[in-house]
Amino acid sequence: MVLKYILIPFIGFIGCVNSNPKKSVANVGNIEMKISQPRRGAFRTVEGNKIIRTVDASQLPLNIGEEFTNENQQFVLVIKNVKKSSISARISTNDKARNIRINQIIMPNNLTDGPFSNNLNYKTSKKGTYKIVIGKNLMADGQLTGNFSVSVE
Questions:
Q1: Which residue, of 69, 83, 109, 114, is most buried by count of CB atoms within 10 Å of its CB?
Q2: Source organism's superkingdom (predicted)?
């Protein structure tokens, strides 16, 4: 009986040892999980008033939902490893009177172009990372806050 209480924790400990160091391992509390596939999706960070989502171009086409909670926010969609000849993006909202647009696109060489409207069709002359910046149109009225989605191809 006593042997059972000694062996069970020991066997559990041995089961958590990573036998293959090339596989990804995540520790959650006392539980270790092996991750066999890389994480997919739009990685999200917030820096001040900027909401930044990062995706790989291999994930296109995609649709990302987001929400502005104050009038000074920007949304930056970072698309890595772009190899296609063009990028298209479209902003959708439930309220057609919303003051939201694609302010600019930042190219791999850090040159920028814009502003645009709610739609963008852009020829990508260089391979690399492109950033699509979405925010308020300072030349128009209307509120920025609320939910929106961005479709990118």
A1: 114
A2: Bacteria
Question: Residue 46 contacts by C-beta under 8 Å, 6 or more apart in sequence?
Answer: 52
**What CATH number has the domain bearing residue 124?**
2.60.120.380
How far apart are alpha carbons 50 and 27 in whole angstroms?
30
52 and 24 share one domain: no
